TrEMBL record, chain A:
Complex and partners: Tetramer of two alpha and two beta chains.
Catalysed transformations (reactions): (1S,2R)-1-C-(indol-3-yl)glycerol 3-phosphate + L-serine = D-glyceraldehyde 3-phosphate + L-tryptophan + H2O
Organism: Oryzicola mucosus
Family matches, as HAMAP family: Trp_synth_alpha
Alphabetized InterPro entries for the sequence: Aldolase_TIM (IPR013785), RibuloseP-bd_barrel (IPR011060), Trp_synthase_alpha_AS (IPR018204), Trp_synthase_suA (IPR002028)
Pathway(s) this gene product operates in, as recorded in its UniProt entry: Amino-acid biosynthesis; L-tryptophan biosynthesis; L-tryptophan from chorismate: step 5/5
Name the record gives this protein: Tryptophan synthase alpha chain
E.C. number: 4.2.1.20
Described function: The alpha subunit is responsible for the aldol cleavage of indoleglycerol phosphate to indole and glyceraldehyde 3-phosphate.
The entry's keywords: Amino-acid biosynthesis, Aromatic amino acid biosynthesis, Lyase, Tryptophan biosynthesis
GO cellular component, one term: cytosol
Coiled-coil stretches noted in the UniProt entry, renumbered to this chain: none
UniProt keyword Amino-acid biosynthesis present: yes
UniProtKB/TrEMBL annotation, chain B:
Main EC class the enzyme belongs to: lyase
Pathway: Amino-acid biosynthesis; L-tryptophan biosynthesis; L-tryptophan from chorismate: step 5/5
Protein name listed in UniProt: Tryptophan synthase beta chain
The keyword Lyase is assigned to this record: yes
Cofactor: pyridoxal 5'-phosphate
Enzyme Commission numbers on file: 4.2.1.20
Any one GO molecular-function label of the UniProt entry: tryptophan synthase activity
Keywords for this protein: Amino-acid biosynthesis, Aromatic amino acid biosynthesis, Lyase, Pyridoxal phosphate, Tryptophan biosynthesis
Subunit structure: Tetramer of two alpha and two beta chains.
Functional description taken from the UniProt entry: The beta subunit is responsible for the synthesis of L-tryptophan from indole and L-serine.
Entries under InterPro entries matching the protein: Trp_synth_b_CS (IPR006653), Trp_synth_beta (IPR006654), Trp_synth_beta/beta-like (IPR023026), TrpB-like_PALP (IPR001926), TrpB-like_PALP_sf (IPR036052)
Gene source species: Oryzicola mucosus
């Protein structure tokens, strides 16, 4: 069974360029603005959308994404509304893959079977659940794969060759390589080390390997995109939204426009990544 | 929730996956997974190593002051006019609480694993002080995460940690309490994976922490069981301990779990009452969910977002509980009941007056249960209350509640 993710990755491979994968927090700063941001992403050159599910206690996230989640929750975002956001997006776009990313508890409380059925119906293609390592695959990964939803696993610098096969076993869609040990939004790791890590993972799998954590600029996207199958940008987008929200929630510019400007630049980065040696 | 079948023994958990029934597990980011597998490997070796046991035993005796006394609280017993009340005097340990038992065990593990840096979370500051203490003793740099609210209400302990050489980071996310401190400690750990040992203070978190913390704290129950047999010639009728994350409680309870005639009661923080959200009674008013590496009872809303809760006692101010307690609750082996802030304050003052002992506000919750229940029991019946810590750290909070400035 192929998903939108598989089809999109195959298409980009044929075009000879890496994917630009963009993360934003569902419901940040509010539902309507957030839906506008989501709609702006593919137009600005995003190939795959990561739709953040807010959680009160995001243990692997830095201050920017923590704050984005709290803004969304404060304005009434729930998992049900995040699913609805995908559904609303699908009315106009049935091609761009959507990966939901977050933590397990809201899904567990929603009910795994009910969540998978609703996610499928809402046009969700993949899941990234930070606190479900392969040791906990029975919880959600195996049911998701059975439901036809990709379960995308994070591989990290601490995932050694001995452990990689276990991490890759039930992974599908793509592998998300976390470029460093740390929380989201930290500084980008040494790109030569990232290059070696991508090669190491590729020696274990035929799946596309995408790299994230720390990518903020078009230049970084270009240099990572020279050897990775995709580049994930999250905190920079979340910051672009935060920057135009005033202290009282009064916006100084349109957040969707701010995101579009940033993503247009990033997409130039991935589109030129393979044209010349990144330097 | 269906009640799981009672097992042949309540003392065999967790299983190899770190589960106590549906509770526990290893719900952590991939970055941390190799670290907790490595910890498990070293823990499995250490717990069967006589040299490790001997070193811990030696430190427990000569550094921490174990065994702690089992004291017949005659003043409180006479005042209440019912069951004989004994206090297990963990307040007399070095650093003033049961937390040192766990910290000594884990610092030896950190040393064995060749780690170079210690991080810890703390609520009331008792675990932070105990961590800073063992770090000083063994020459580790120590970084303690503490909620900003707790930094404010537990100032004496913050100063003690700093004196001991620890760096204390005030965490202002959420309500600035233990939950937020734990998030921040996990963020540190995920960043500094190479050289850092995370010294978790309670019997919660990803497997194997709930098991290893319980093993280090079980010395409380092992001693208490032996001491009551020596002093009274029989087992107690009831044992009581306060439950935040639940390390002092599981330490007292575990050795008694298969003594089916011993009634076991865990006391949760009832705060201002269970009708609202101003409490921390996760097992009385929460439902199972996943946080901080394990599945357990949590205070949460209908969307699975974790609530902050409230307790007058910083050590009980946590919206979850160790997974073994959740399992003991569902199997029915242990009863968990709430005690309100006011009831704990009354017990705090009563114990000070009739026993000349200032208990920690956490322990005062357990004593408050004795105040309620002992008068309904016969004079020939016996109750052990875990006096998990001393209350010097709480005098500012209590003075404020009594409307006094000190």
């Amino acid at each position: 069974m192929t998903t939108r993710i598989d089809r999109r990755m195959a298409k980009l491979k044929a075009e000879g360029r890496p994917a630009l994968i963009t993360y934003f927090m569902g419901g940040d700063p509010d539902y309507d603005t957030s839906l506008d941001i989501m709609k702006a992403l593919p137009k600005a050159g995003s190939d795959i959308i990561e739709l953040g599910m807010p959680f009160s206690d995001p243990m692997a996230d830095g201050p920017a994404i923590q704050a984005a989640g709290l803004r969304a929750l404060k304005n009434g975002q729930t998992l049900a509304k995040t699913l609805k956001m995908a559904q609303d997006f699908r009315v106009h776009d049935d091609e761009t893959p959507i990966v939901m990313m977050g933590y397990y508890n809201p899904i567990y409380i929603y009910g795994v079977d009910r969540f998978l059925a609703d996610a499928k119906a809402s046009g969700i293609d993949g899941l990234i659940v930070v606190d479900l390592p392969p040791e906990m695959d029975e919880e959600l990964c195996i049911p998701a794969v059975k439901a036809g939803i990709n379960f995308i696993r994070l591989a990290t610098p601490t995932t050694d060759d001995q452990r990689l096969p276990k991490v890759l076993e039930n992974t599908s869609g793509f592998v998300y390589y976390v470029s460093m040990t740390g929380i989201t939004g930290s500084a980008l790791a040494d790109t030569t080390k990232v290059d070696a890590a991508v090669k190491r993972i590729k020696s274990h799998t035929d799946l596309p390997v995408c790299v994230g954590f720390g990518v903020k600029t078009a230049e970084q996207a270009r240099s990572i995109g020279a050897y990775a199958d995709g580049v994930v940008v999250g905190t920079a987008i979340v910051n672009a939204i935060a920057n135009v929200i005033g202290p009282q929630g009064r916006m100084t510019a349109n957040p969707a426009d701010a995101v579009a400007t940033l993503v247009t630049g990033l997409s130039q980065g991935v589109r030129t990544a393979r044209l010349a040696p990144a330097q | 929730m269906n009640k799981p079948l009672a097992p042949n023994s309540f003392r065999t958990g967790p299983d190899e996956q770190g589960m106590f029934g549906i509770f526990g597990g290893r719900f952590v980011a991939e970055t941390l997974m190799p670290l907790i597998l490595d910890l498990q490997k070293h823990w499995d070796e250490a717990k069967n190593d006589p040299a490790f046991k001997a070193e811990l035993q030696n430190l427990s005796t000569h550094y921490a002051g174990r065994p702690s006394k089992l004291y017949f609280a005659e003043g409180l017993t006479n005042h209440l006019g019912g069951a004989k009340i004994y206090f297990k005097r963990e307040d007399l340990n070095h650093t003033g609480s049961h937390k040192i038992n766990n910290c000594l065990g884990q610092i030896l593990l950190a040393k064995r694993m060749g780690k170079k840096r210690i991080i810890a979370e703390t609520g009331a500051g008792q675990h932070g002080v105990a961590s800073a203490t063992v770090a000083a003793r063994f020459g580790f740099p120590c970084f303690v995460y503490m909620g900003a609210t707790d930094v404010e209400r537990q100032k004496p302990n913050v100063f003690r940690m700093k004196l001991l050489g620890a760096e204390v980071t005030a965490v202002s996310s959420g309500h600035g309490t233990l939950k937020d401190a734990m998030n921040e400690a996990l963020r540190d750990w995920v960043t500094n994976v190479e050289d850092t040992y995370y010294l978790i203070g309670t019997a919660a978190g990803p497997h194997p922490y709930p098991e290893l913390v319980r093993e280090f704290q079980s010395v409380i129950g092992i001693e208490a069981r032996q001491q009551i047999l020596e002093q009274e010639g029989r087992l107690p009728d009831v044992i009581v301990a306060a439950v935040g994350g639940g390390s002092n409680a599981i330490g007292l309870f575990h050795p008694f779990l298969d003594d089916t005639d011993v009634k076991i009661v865990g006391i949760e923080a009832g705060g201002h009452g269970l009708d609202g959200i101003e409490h921390c009674a996760s097992m009385s008013a929460g439902k199972p969910g996943v946080l901080h590496g394990n599945r357990t009872y949590l205070l949460q809303n209908a969307d699975g977002q974790i609530m902050d809760g409230h307790s007058i006692s910083a050590g009980l101010d946590y919206p979850g509980v160790g997974p073994e307690h959740s399992w003991l609750r569902d199997t029915g082996r242990v009863d968990y009941v709430p005690i309100l802030d006011d009831e704990a304050l009354d017990a705090f003052q009563l114990t000070t007056k009739v026993e000349g002992i200032i208990p920690a506000l956490e322990s005062a919750h357990a004593i408050a249960h004795a105040v309620k229940v002992a008068p309904t029991m016969g004079k020939d019946q016996i109750m052990i209350v875990n006096l998990s810590g001393r209350g010097d750290k709480d005098v500012h909070t209590v003075a404020k509640m009594m409307g006094m400035e000190i």
